[in-house]
Write a sequence for this structure.
């Protein structure tokens, strides 16, 4: 039984962050849901995500930040994608995306401010994001 | 084929050392001045002294590192007053990757904005002169916690700051903490660290080294962790280190914790003795649960309490504690102090005179011991002129294979899961040279949980997130 | 000399029972109607069913009783939803002393002023008709927790309310809970309770009895507690009870906890069998620390977590939990629910397949077992036509002697203290018939703590308040 | 060496309360400090304390309530002593003197309202009260 590809997703961990456990799980989970996954693994800069997304013509980019460096590295994220003509790509971020403890709402608005479509700060179940992604992709196609 | 040897001791260090110490951030450190300084700090700064003076309870070490000097100073006092027996200095992740410039830049930004842009104390950026002041009046060991593949400059600055315990090792600070750092270089850089620790050591003031047994903290079979610990103890002993702690992280199974502690203690001693390192003292450190923590504070507190109890039961010399904020971000000083408090409370009320056992524990210990012996024996038999080369080859061959290591040199063939007792079982040994009989027993023990062949991400995540139930 | 016998079963109960049930607060209870009612409540209301269906973890039972019906109703739901496997009904202390009028009066005052003037639920004042409604829809055992020497009416009302677990016994609810209640009467009144429990029992719906092993909860040597448990199991079995739980309270020493559990389980079974009560099922209940609790919530939480872990390690069928408010007053429902939560969390994450041991535990178990056998053997040899009479004599002789019992019939000659492992040691056996060799060993083990002969109130208070460190 | 008697104290637990541990400790502790102790043990009514105080000519009465019944039984305490001519006797209360949790200040003012000189709610160390008693007795003698 051949599976239809649900979409192409670039996943990776940003900054000098080497927390790879969630990254491995994410790959497994996305694949189980029928996505084709391009895994940049750990220690990436924003441009690595851009390049990869361009190369594989990705539908979405899943950025992980576990050690909180995300706050520093992601500030310019959406713009960098726009610069290479990927302004409309779905950008998700998740993990422990800031250093220290901060109110969830602040964290979410910080990253939506950076241009992310969805923010999953300290949400252990990746299943939720995958359901959202399927939803977002459907809506995107409907609009197109 | 190469075994640990006393004459593998690194010679002609001077040249490299000169290079390392001429980095501007070394701020003119000279070994002579440091030697004199170390001779003057309180004797209880040296872990061996603290360990040998400890009572029946394990020593307690919290975690903690914040970017600003003032804040780190306050944290240090706070933790010490809360009764920490070892005071931590946790380093930020830029410094860990030798990105001293970025670290310095973010340190300045943190200072200006009063907001932390670093997840630890950038020791190299601060320098040893300032950092000595962190510890004036403190007569407890300071423990350097980092995760740095190339810790040469960091260790120099740490020692110069009066820090007498350096955590890490060529394997344990490379495979879990780095993606691309060349393992052979890392092993050599840690030889450097081991060697300078030995050089600064005196009879009654030995610099202490500690290895980091939890590794990726995720489904690591005890045999792998123990083999790595023993290897790092031997590598350090080769360089002349005479005070060393092996460690392991709470496995998630009481049975396996007790068994692992027993094997780790026993085999470390026996291998050290076998290769002529009888004078190297070995201590046992227990890390409270290092994997994914529960987010609710009540659950986190319960986990910390339970694991404190286990640290007593396994006869640890030291327990490294977590906080209720572990899953939520870098903990505030109060939360760290609270953790010390509640761990000490648990150790006191549940002080347990002697390690426990059971037939299941005995069986587990026998299995782990046999596996460790196979692995280490096979590594000894690998080609190489000196021991570290065989160790390096062990990763190329997949003889050592650490689940969830981000490192590109890791084989990633070993697959592990939890059995009905929550013990970590080797489902697929990959190229790890454990015997067929042991591999068979691992699988048989796993069979107790029923059919787990339909390995979905959810099952795996369940095993990883076992403390989040 | 009298041993437990099946033919000691109480006959001609009808007359007394008629008297008891004609109390106005019995509100016309008839055994026939109750029998029918009990046949209709959910089967899982019966502890044996719940126990036999339990998984690998002990069942969890919180504490809780409040005066007003509505509040008790809410508390019941709350605890059940929080995942309590057994739901408690704790009775106020007036009802415990048969002062139903005062209880009723304070119940009314509580209702009017909306402020609690009772420290539990006055079941007799509320009556069985209303109280049945507490439990509509609940398919878990309800456990009656009280402390009543004469619990005849209370037990009748409880059973009529659909409560299938009655805690207590002629010794355990007299000596720690009363100053002057005549022990012989108490033993007889509890024969009544045992007998009606037996009479209401059917093959698949046996009414369950549980004894209260913690006694005064203060420095009670395990041998005394275990002897009392076994005696009450035998007394209940004589009356035809077929489902019984022995219990003990956390001793404060892991070693002694594990040893006590082992001996208690083993000897209860062996004595029941010896006297022909093979069909009486015996379960093991563990009480979390019953003595003085720490006042700080963090410490209390840690103690509760640690003791939850031990309940798993000793293989308890049920654990009765405390709350972080124990030292502060009767806990609010939320706090009770929290306790259930964190105990269940601990049991889950530290599920332990098999009881542990160690040479110290083996030695402790051997000592306790020998002591219990001596005590029970000596009681069997006391004069008396039936077993309960010998038991009564045992207190007169000081063969059974419960430290810190308020009861005037208690000998108060036995003196106990904690040793270096925090185990409770018999310093002076008084008239308790343990062997010279065992008494000697108790003293030898105590010697480990150094000279404690200058026994000041502070030392004693330190042993009592050991969880307040 | 003969010890001087520091004073005579009646101690006991009030209501239907059978918590006797603290009561035993109190006796030991007071005796160690040189007091002569008359112990009514558990389950006492206010009048039992009155009678005993009269009989032994007590300097002070230590009332314990552990199960919280104290609130109910002690309301009229001082008056009952005044009625028998013991209006000036020192009255201390301690233990868990009310049912449930209440603010310490409320508990203290409740019992001082009942006529108690000192209130030790949930204070595990009896040593403090003994020091206070020695103080109060000294002051009393100085005034006399
Ligand atoms: C295991 C662990 C480690 C291991 C990592 C091994 C490895 N190579 O992976 C070791 C011990 C080596 C380690 C090291 C460090 N760690 Co660490 N670590 C953890 C820990 C305990 C668990 C992380 C984990 O594996 N979770 C399990 C996986 C399955 O969950 P996950 O990663 O969160 O991913 C899931 C979800 O978040 C989500 N998700 C993740 N990314 C994304 C992205 C998208 C788009 C979406 C939709 C979802 C999503 O899906 C995943 C699968 O369900 C956490 C604390 C915690 N969470 O309990 C700290 C933690 C992440 N570490 C931390 C830190 C600071 C470090 C260090 C810098 C210092 C130190 N404390 O030692 C070092 C160095 C690391 C570096 N250079 O970056 C901090 C981060 C602080 C912050 N953000 O404020 C934490 C939070 C601990 C703490 N409280 O201090 N760590
Ligand atoms: C042990 C115990 C028991 C034992 C008692 C054995 C015995 N016969 O003594 C048993 C298990 C039998 C028991 C039974 C009950 N108990 Co009880 N018990 C306790 C417990 C855990 C410890 C008490 C103790 O012994 N402490 C150690 C001694 C040394 O300390 P102490 O008594 O506080 O006394 C010291 C100080 O307070 C002070 N002090 C005491 N009195 C005075 C007086 C003066 C003047 C001064 C200056 C000082 C002073 O000096 C003493 C020595 O240092 C407490 C909770 C806690 N505190 O942790 C509950 C507790 C007292 N019990 C309680 C209750 C409700 C009961 C029961 C009614 C119901 C039940 N829960 O089972 C029954 C029935 C009792 C009855 N009829 O009164 C409640 C009281 C609630 C309240 N006040 O709001 C408590 C607080 C538990 C709770 N949170 O529910 N209990």
């Amino acid at each position: 039984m051949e599976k239809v590809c649900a979409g192409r997703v670039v996943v990776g961990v940003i900054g000098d962050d080497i927390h790879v456990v969630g990254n491995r799980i994410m790959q497994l989970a996305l694949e189980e849901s029928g996505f084709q996954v391009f895994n940049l693994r750990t220690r990436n800069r924003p441009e690595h995500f851009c390049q990869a997304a361009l190369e594989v013509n990705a539908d979405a980019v899943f950025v992980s930040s576990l050690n909180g460096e995300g706050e520093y590295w992601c500030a310019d994220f959406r713009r960098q994608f726009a610069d290479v003509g990927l302004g409309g790509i779905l950008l998700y971020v998740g993990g422990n995306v800031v250093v220290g403890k901060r109110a969830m709402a602040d964290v979410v608005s910080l990253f939506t401010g950076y241009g992310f479509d969805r923010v999953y700060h300290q949400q252990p179940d990746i299943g939720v994001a995958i359901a959202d992604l399927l939803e977002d992709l459907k809506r995107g196609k409907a609009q197109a | 084929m190469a075994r640990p040897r006393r004459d593998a001791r690194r010679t002609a260090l001077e040249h490299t050392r000169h290079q390392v110490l001429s980095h501007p951030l070394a701020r003119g450190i000279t070994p002579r001045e440091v030697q004199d300084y170390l001779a003057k700090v309180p004797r209880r700064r040296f872990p061996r002294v603290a360990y040998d003076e400890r009572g029946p309870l394990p020593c307690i070490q919290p975690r903690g590192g914040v970017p600003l000097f003032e804040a780190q100073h306050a944290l240090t006092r706070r933790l010490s007053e809360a009764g920490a027996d070892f005071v931590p200095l946790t380093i930020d992740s830029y410094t860990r990757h030798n990105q001293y410039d970025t670290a310095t830049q973010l340190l300045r930004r943190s200072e200006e904005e009063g907001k932390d842009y670093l997840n630890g104390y950038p020791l190299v950026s601060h320098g040893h002169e300032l950092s000595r002041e962190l510890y004036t009046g403190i007569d407890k060991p300071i423990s350097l916690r980092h995760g740095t593949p190339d810790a040469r400059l960091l260790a120099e600055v740490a020692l110069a700051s009066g820090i007498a315990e350096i955590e890490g090792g060529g394997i344990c600070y490379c495979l879990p903490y780095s993606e691309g750092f060349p393992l052979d270089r890392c092993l050599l850089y840690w030889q450097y660290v081991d060697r300078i620790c030995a050089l600064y050591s005196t009879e009654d003031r030995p610099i202490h080294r500690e290895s980091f047994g939890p590794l990726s903290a995720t489904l690591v079979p005890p045999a792998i962790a123990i083999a790595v610990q023993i290897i790092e103890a031997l590598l350090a002993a080769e360089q002349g280190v005479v005070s060393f702690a092996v460690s392991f992280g709470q496995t998630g199974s009481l049975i396996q914790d007790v068994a692992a502690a027993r094997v780790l203690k026993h085999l470390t001693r026996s291998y050290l003795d076998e290769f002529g390192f009888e004078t190297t003292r070995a201590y046992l450190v227990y890390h409270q649960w290092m994997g994914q923590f529960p987010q609710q504070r009540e659950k986190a507190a319960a986990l910390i309490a339970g694991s404190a109890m286990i640290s007593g039961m396994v006869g640890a010399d030291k327990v490294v504690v977590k906080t209720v904020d572990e899953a939520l971000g870098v903990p505030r000083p109060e939360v760290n102090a609270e953790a010390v408090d509640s761990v000490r409370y648990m150790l006191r009320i549940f002080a347990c005179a002697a390690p426990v056992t059971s037939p299941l524990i005995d069986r587990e210990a026998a299995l782990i011991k046999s596996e460790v012996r196979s692995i280490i024996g096979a590594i000894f038999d690998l080609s190489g002129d000196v021991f570290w080369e065989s160790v390096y080859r062990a990763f190329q061959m997949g003889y050592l294979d650490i689940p969830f290591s981000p490192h590109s040199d890791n084989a990633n063939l070993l697959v592990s899961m939890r059995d009905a007792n929550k013990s970590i079982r080797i489902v697929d040994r990959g190229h790890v040279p454990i015997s067929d009989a042991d591999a068979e027993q691992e699988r048989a023990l796993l069979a107790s949980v029923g059919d787990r062949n339909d390995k979905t991400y959810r099952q795996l995540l369940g095993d990883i997130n076992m403390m989040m139930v």
Remarks:
- Residues 6-349 of chain B form a domain with the TIM Barrel fold (CATH 3.20.20.240).
- The mean pLDDT of chain B is 95.
